[in-house]
Amino acid sequence: MEREIERVRERESEPENYYDFMLRWKMERSSQRQEGQVLFKGKELPWEQTRHGLGKMYTGPANWHRVGAPGWIVTRTGMEKIRRGKHSHTGGGVLFYVLEGHGCTVNNDMRFEWRRGDLELIPITRYENVHQHFNLDPGQPCGKLVVRFWPFMEPLAYETRQVDDSPDWKGPRNGKLYRPEDFVPETARVRGYDIDLKGPPATLLDDLLRRRDEWREQMSKAKMVIEEKDRPLERNRMGLYRWYIHPSFTDVGCRHILFWTQDIPPGSRSGQQKHQGSRIHYVVEGKGYSLLNGVRYDWEEEDLLIVPIRKGGTIIQHFNADPARPVKLAVAEPNWYDILGVDMACGLEQLENSPDYP
Question: What backbone torsions phi and psi does residue 198 show, to the nearest 5 degrees?
Answer without folding.
Answer: -70, 140
